[in-house]
Specification:
heterodimer, A: 115 residues, mainly beta, 0% helix, globular, B: 115 residues
Chain lengths: 115, 115
């Protein structure tokens, strides 16, 4: 079936450090891939997405590249800020019978950035 | 656009009481999703609607949960009777379509506490 696996958190970094949050997926066909961010006490917000292989999604300094050969969609940022502290969710659109239209989420990775 | 609107934002109730959560999707969106988020189970899709019709309710935990979408601008999720294990954050999300329009937009959530 379709599934998403993220690296376990929490990830704790100092301000201006480089960030990588790993995400790998299992899916039949060609799903679209997403990163959502959830700030404390809020709902999820779309951070970036990629709809086909080798696409790069980017937003607010974050980037992720759709790698079909490694079934990965790792999130990166060159210099994190305290305001980036949040929970990050990797997700894919379901493909195949019974899955169309669904978002399949990973378990979320908490990022804590210290000044 | 006001985004997805949920009410109430917080609900505290006693075991056995009926709870009704409300959602107004973004105007023009034709798909609506209800999710539940807990520390133990993460984000779970409960049910989703396309054009007001329930498409997949396999995530609804049990008969105590029911969801309706009487029109394109309103949906409810009802729990009757409520139990302490129903305590969670419930999110509503909406989406305009498929393909490149498949991004889901989340509401701020309803924080439910059942005592």
């Amino acid at each position: 079936g379709n599934s998403v696996t993220q690296m376990e958190g929490p990830v704790t970094l100092s301000e201006e450090a480089f960030l990588t949050i790993n995400c790998t997926y299992t899916a039949t066909g060609y799903p679209s891939l997403f990163w959502y961010v959830q700030y404390p006490g809020e709902g999820l917000q779309l951070l970036l997405k990629a709809t086909k292989a080798d696409d790069k999604g980017s937003n607010k300094g974050f980037e992720a590249t759709y790698r079909k050969e490694t079934t990965s969609f790792h999130l990166e940022k060159g210099s994190v800020q305290v305001s980036d502290s949040a929970v990050y969710f990797c997700a894919l659109t379901g493909v195949g019978s019974g899955n169309t239209g669904k978002l399949i989420f990973g378990q979320g990775t908490t990022l804590q950035v210290k000044p | 656009d006001a985004g997805v609107i949920q009410s109430p934002r917080h609900e505290v109730t006693e075991m056995g009481q009926e709870v009704t959560l409300r959602c107004k999707p973004i105007s023009g969106h034709n798909s609506l999703f209800w999710y539940r988020q807990t520390m133990m189970r993460g984000l779970e899709l409960l049910i989703y609607f396309n054009n007001n019709v329930p498409i997949d309710d396999s995530g609804m935990p049990e008969d105590r949960f029911s969801a309706k979408m009487p029109n394109a601008s309103f949906s409810t999720l009802k729990i009757q009777p409520s139990e302490p294990r129903d305590s969670a954050v419930y999110f509503c999300a909406s989406r305009t379509g498929t393909g490149d329009q498949e991004t889901q937009y989340f509401g701020p959530g309803t924080r439910l506490l059942v005592l």
